Fold this protein.
Amino acid sequence: MVSRTVILHYHLFKNAGTSLDKNLKDNFPGQWVAREFPAGDCDHASMIAEWITETPDAVAFSTHTGIGPLPRIPDVRIISVMFLRDPLERIRSAYNFERNQDTNTLGAVLARTTDLAGYVRCRLALPGDRQCRNFQTQRLASFAPGQGTEYERALKGIAQLSFVGFVADFDGSMRKFSELLRSDFPDYKYEPVHLNQSMRHGAHADSEDIDPETLAILVENNQEDLKLLGLPARKPQGAILPDPKPNRLRSLIGLIGPPRSGTTLIANAMLSHSEVTGIIEPFQTRRLQDYIKTDFATMLDDFGVDCSGNPHLIVKETTTRQQNASLTMEMLKKARDRGLYTGLVIVLRFPFSAYLSQVEASQTLWKETKLPEVSEETFSRFAKSLRNGLLKVCLAARAQHYRMVSYEAFCKAPADELARLMALIPLRLERQAQLSFRPPQDTRPGGDPKTRTKRGRITPTPRDEEVAEVICRFAGSPEERFCQQLRGIVLRSVCREPDSVALDLLTGLLLQQESF
């Protein structure tokens, strides 16, 4: 039960954080606080958690020096935010700022006593100094400690933050961030303000007056930062982000889960928003035609979807085939590579209920009789398919922002869960339209035909007695133990703990369960 919501701003040096803090101060007068933390091998997560706990009247927290992992506090929802910037522009801005500082810090002394080329060379020569070498990648990687390269962990770090904005489109990012915050703070307002600017940003930033040799050094030492932001590694003339609206789209959200897990119900509720359109199960419905196209622009044409008035696209798919999951993840990656914002919704359901629902669908709804009856053989096939399909999704999920939701939690609190899912886009919940949505035939074809009979009612199908019989029948089998563990994650972690925690638990279970 969430009893408190706070905003945690990881303020990276020269990444427009002063402007964001000013907006937070204006919205939460007397409730904005800042603190810095010691460098080195310190447990910043615990320190930040203690800071938040011991400051109960504060709403917005800001820190330059705090690093990951994200803190966890029982019953406290933490909305974490960080802004990213073209690394060349950020370094030039840092140099200009420190050159005018009346302090004797290392950076200020260097900037006052040498030109930009000397400043860059000196900082790169200092052991452990990351100011001019993939600074943002290092900071993001701190949110995902463990195995993997720093860049791979930085990608995971992005997925763990609630919101990541871009300085090159500060106003646009702030408008999206404000929409996200209004789920918890309905009166939150954003008024454009730009403070503490030491250089202009955009397509014509001042990188042209950096000498070619220094420019080459900066590009070479910031390849991962440039790649992280999708910036060209060989033409870094300022913050030239890819077009955020190719084909008029502003975002692409993948929604995927095992068959009969509630994906059609949740997708149609999301698709009932006035700014959202969608494609239902493109790879499953056209599997007989071997449909494997993953370029979203091509898919829009193939499925006759016009997004001119609905700039947010949801593609709903199931893990009925492992290939469905692989193609969905490939589609999201291609969209990210073209500069489009992507997100992922992973839908789960108590596995024993999903199994019984698949048996029912095989008998009464599906053209293909996959699981004709309750038996050891069909339960084994179900568990294997469940594990393999979800593993494909989980291993690729962290490359974008994501949300996890269970069918049970969605049916119990549809307004709360739907608002949380819409914030991923981000859009505000349109309560009347989305909680009593029209039948699926009014959206895109495909998906669970049973949802049509509910005509927009968000109600679970009761199966308690049948579930108890299945558990008793298959008790002690590897498949039953796996499903019990998965049920525990769905019951205790999904929609209860941070999505990153639930995803880590799910991935760990799937990796441990190598075979049945």
Notes: The two ends are 36 Å apart (CA to CA). Strands lie at 4-10, 32-34, 60-63, 76-84, 163-166, 251-257, 276-280, 312-318, 341-348, 401-406. The longest strand covers residues 76-84. Residues 198-208, 232-247, 439-445, 451-456 have pLDDT under 50 and may be disordered.
